[in-house]
Write a structure and sequence with these properties.
Elements lengths: L12 H11 L14 E5 L4 H16 L9 E4 L9 H14 L11 H15 L6 H14 L1 E5 L8 E5 L8 H4 L6 H11 L1 H8 L20 H8 L9 H19 L17 E5 L5 H14 L13 E6 L19 H14 L8 E5 L8 H8 L12 H19 L9 E2 L4 E2 L3 E5 L5 E8 L7 H18 L6 E7 L6 H21 L6 E7 L7 H14 L3 E6 L5 H12 L4 E3 L6 H5 L3 E3 L4 H14 L5 E7 L5 H16 L3 E8 L10 H8 L8 E5 L3 H15 L5 E4 L4 H5 L10 E6 L11 H4 L4 H8 L3 H4 L4 H22 L1 H7 L2 H4 L8 E3 L2 E3 L15 E5 L6 E6 L14
Parallel strand pairs: 1-6, 1-7, 2-5, 5-6, 12-13, 12-14, 14-15, 15-16, 17-18, 17-19, 19-20, 20-21
Antiparallel strand pairs: 3-4, 8-9, 10-11, 11-13, 21-24, 22-23, 24-25
């Protein structure tokens, strides 16, 4: 509601008030603080008119809680001795500024409190003052000294008294031991207590020269100053020196209360300057105070050009500004305050330090104002003081409530988990949320022990076993850590089954490591569907390995894709060994000198397939189909190798084509290729070789079914198709004649699984933990990951046998090179002997099997390779 005060209605009032309101607003924290003048209003009317003007201005400035200055106080001289006038005015200002600790919560005005005690000593006079008495005298001063001021209307009967102790007090660590060791407490306070140290260091440094007419600044230890003020030793301070000390002390308290030096300081939240409205209608006290403020501001600062303070002083009275400072500029008209301020500002910067004039005088006109001024003044209000910085805490809380769950969701953490790591400092971004087709989501990256957004129904059992074993492993100080990087979110049932078997194989191998000198702690990392984010996951693994030197290697690696090659290369650059379980791409060998694999390479599989096609299937022609995806290294390498090796074995290639994976990708429709493959059914010596992925194999067969009319050609598929067969999808195609290669399978031990039950080790442990060892291991993924971790275990054992310290400093790299010859690993998927000089990190003559799909479990058609751990069952296919 507008306040109608006739005192504010004068010619130029709207422009003047608008400028004054703007002057009281602080710049934003990144901007430089303003230089604040002492605004002097010359009111030619009777003395009471200036008081009414200030009262009206105070009401207008403080009428609205969110408008105008946050701290606007009004003081005027009282009936006290002349030598106490400045002290009384400053005490009244301090009482209103700091009452209730609004400014500098918990600190109050300690500098002014100590300065007022020194002024009290000068009035009292003492014959002696010992160091032992100082703390006691200070405590008495804080409890007895009163700050008093008059109410808003400045009436003599409205005096308000405030005990000094309510706005500032000595710290407890000074008062508590003062009665026992007062002298020691005083010396400690002079060294540690900031306000006491300020007295010794205020003003210019000793190297800076003073002019002759400059009063010597009062500085020194509190005890030294106390004896000087009490007249015990040294020259008694002059009235001008005391006034300057009191003014500087209060301004120092305001400087600290409004400081933006601290990151979370209250001064950063203050959007307006404190305003002191000073009535100058009578007495010398106001003039002395204005001169004291001028002397403080003109004193040489310890740093910078100006000794700035945040106080805006508005003085009003019947005296001209020249009565306060003879060098003050001519009084300006209130209607053009901005021009007057700019002129004052330029003069201030150009003047010598001691000659700076801080008064900015204005003359309040006495003539009648225009008729429109009253309405304009009533409509004019102080600008909105939205306390943005006061809402920072609340804003951070609200932002945290929103941002923490959102951030946690995006980084695949529990909703209210921390987002940063304390030590070493960093953001917890080991996992990120990505799309998984059909509006699904997947969490990719380093998952630790409990990967989110996975099929817990299928994978949960194996993950729980790994977590249980990890809890036991970490109790052994010699344990090492291995990361399993694979596809934990494949997006299809076949992929989930593969992930489950891989985890089961690892869980069994990890349990066996408990009996060894260096048991293995397992961490899980998700590369996403089709290994799309393998390189990103590898990056997170490398970052974690830098923080945790126990991480010695990576196993798994999912599929042979370009992303897998990039991941292996990144791991190799960081010196981290990786052991691929089902990866077969020959290009992986070249990606890193620290890469090993359990499975035979693609070239060797092609040689084996060509020989089997020629000798066992009696084929003389072959149609080869594969994935045309340029990132599918596995399929591309196999297709190229088949094109090279089949003719060597006497099998002519009658068709060689790739299917497209995306609508825009290269290749032909996979269904169309299936229809074209039906032509092989017309020739008994022609076969179809499928070197693509299991995900597209059903579409390939569907196209074949439509064109072949249930007269399927013979199909020889590569190992990836095992997932399709074991899911039972082949039963949809009666009469399908399918044989496929596999890198490991329990079918090696017979279709009835009796032989597996007699084996010691892997199959017994599998049955004990999960059951169904024979049926579940037809695709061999558990066997391969078991062997991959067996390679890591053997490498660690090799290093420990030579030097246990090497395992801590250099990991298992040296031990991997010793897995050769007599030091080979007799794995459950075949012998792992890395002694081939041409392919030193690929197992020599690794076992490969051919299985035939049947209505029931697949049967063993052929096996080739080294398998020294136990003799296998002969082929059992009819």
């Amino acid at each position: 509601m507008p306040i109608d005060r006739p005192e504010l209605v004068f010619d130029g009032a709207p422009e003047f008030l608008e400028w004054l309101y703007a002057l009281a607003r602080r710049p934003w924290p990144l901007n430089r603080e303003k230089l604040l003048p002492i605004v002097h209003l010359h009111v030619a009317e009777p003395p009471a008119e200036s008081r009414r003007l200030l009262t009206a201005l105070h009401e207008r400035w403080t009428a609205h809680r969110l408008r105008g200055a946050r701290q606007c106080v009004m003081v005027a001289p009282s009936h006290v001795a002349a030598e106490q006038g400045v002290e009384q005015l400053l005490a009244a200002a301090a009482a209103q500024f700091f009452q209730g600790n609004r400014l500098g919560r918990g600190r109050g005005a300690p500098h002014f409190a100590l300065a007022s005690w020194l002024a009290t000593l000068q009035r009292e006079g003492r014959e002696r003052l010992s160091e032992d008495e100082v703390v006691a005298q200070l405590s008495a001063h804080f409890s007895q000294y009163e700050l008093f001021y008059e109410g808003q209307e400045l009436r003599e009967d409205a005096q308000i008294r405030v005990p000094l102790a309510t706005i500032s007090d000595l710290p407890w660590w000074i008062k508590l031991p003062a009665s026992v060791l007062p002298r020691l407490v005083l010396h400690i306070a002079d060294t540690v207590f900031g306000p006491q140290r300020w007295f010794e260091h205020r003003g210019e440094s000793r190297q800076q020269e003073r002019r002759r007419d400059e009063p010597e600044p009062l500085k020194g230890s509190l005890f030294t100053l106390a004896k000087r003020f009490a007249g015990i030793e040294g020259q008694a301070p002059t009235r001008q020196q005391v006034n300057a000390l009191l003014a500087d002390a209060l301004l120092e308290d305001l400087r600290r209360a409004y400081s933006r030096g601290g990151l979370f300081g209250r001064g950063r939240r203050r959007r307006t300057y404190p305003v002191l409205l000073l009535g100058c209608e009578s007495g010398e006290a106001t003039t002395d105070l204005l001169r004291a403020i001028k002397d403080v501001r003109n004193s040489r600062p310890r740093r910078g050009t100006f000794k700035k303070d945040p106080l805006l002083v508005v003085a009003a009275g019947p005296h001209a500004a020249s009565d306060v400072d003879a060098r003050a500029q001519e009084e300006a008209a209130p209607g053009s305050p901005e021009a007057a301020y700019m002129g004052w500002h330029e003069g201030l910067k150009e003047a010598p330090r001691r000659d700076r004039v801080w008064l900015l005088p204005f003359a309040i006109p006495t003539n009648a104002p225009p008729a429109t001024v009253r309405d304009r003044v009533m409509k004019l209000r102080p600008p909105q003081r939205v306390p943005w910085m006061s809402f920072v805490g609340l804003g951070l809380l609200v932002a945290g409530v929103v941002a923490v769950p959102v951030s946690s969701h995006e980084f695949c953490r529990p909703w209210w988990s921390p987002s940063v790591r304390a030590w070493p400092p960093g953001v917890l971004d080991a996992m990120t949320l990505e799309d998984l087709g059909d509006d699904g989501k997947q969490c990719v990256g380093l998952a630790g022990e409990d990967p989110p957004l996975v099929d817990t129904k299928e994978l949960g059992g194996a993950i729980d076993k790994i977590k249980e074993t990890n809890a036991k492993v970490v109790l052994n100080p010699k344990h090492i850590t291995v990361v399993h990087l694979t596809i934990l979110s494949p997006g299809n049932e076949q992929g989930v089954r593969v992930a489950r078997e891989e985890l089961r194989g690892l869980a069994i191998a990890q349990q066996e490591s408990l009996e060894e000198d260096a048991p293995i702690r397992l961490l899980l990392a998700n590369a996403g569907a089709n290994m799309e984010y393998a390189d990103r996951a590898a990056q997170k693994i490398v970052a974690e390995a830098r923080r945790d030197p126990r991480i010695v290697g990576v196993v798994g690696l999912g599929l042979s894709t370009q992303q897998t090659i990039d991941a292996v290369q990144r791991l190799g650059q960081a010196g981290l060994p990786s052991v691929g379980s089902a990866t077969t791409a020959d290009e992986l060998i070249d990606a890193s000198p620290y890469y090993y694999q359990v499975s035979p390479g693609n070239r060797r599989q092609a040689v084996f397939a060509a020989g089997y096609a020629s000798a066992d299937l009696r084929a003389r022609r072959a149609r080869v189909y594969y994935s045309a995806d340029p990132d599918d290294t596995y399929s591309a390498e196999l297709a190229t190798a088949m094109r090279d090796e089949l003719p060597v074995a006497g099998v002519e290639i009658s068709d060689h084509a790739g299917y497209r994976v995306t609508d825009e990708g290269p290749g032909e429709s996979v269904g169309q290729l299936g229809r074209r493959a039906c032509q092989a059914a017309e020739r008994p010596d022609e076969i179809v070789v499928y070197a693509g992925r299991a995900e597209r194999f059903e579409q390939f067969l569907t196209g074949m079914k439509l064109a072949c009319q249930n007269r399927y050609p013979r199909i020889l598929a590569t190992d990836d198709v095992s997932r399709f067969v074991l899911s039972g999808a082949n039963r949809k195609y009666p009469g399908l004649r399918l044989e496929y290669m596999t890198l490991a399978s329990s079918a090696l031990w017979g279709a009835d699984c009796q032989a597996t039950r007699r084996q010691s080790g892997f199959y017994i442990r599998y049955n004990g933990l999960f059951g169904g060892a024979c049926e579940e291991n037809r695709d061999g993924r558990a066997l391969l990951t078991f062997d991959a971790l067996a390679v890591i275990r053997q490498a660690a054992a090799n290093v420990l046998a030579k030097d246990a310290v090497t395992l801590k400093t250099q990991g298992i790299v040296a031990g991997l090179a010793d897995i050769r010859g007599k030091g080979l690993v007799s794995g459950v998927s075949g012998d792992l002997d890395y002694s081939d000089s041409e392919a030193p990190r690929t197992p020599v003559d690794k076992a490969i099997q051919v299985l035939r799909a049947t209505e029931g479990q697949p049967c063993l058609a052929k096996v080739e390779g080294k398998f020294s751990s136990q003799p296998w069952i002969a082929r059992d296919c009819p």
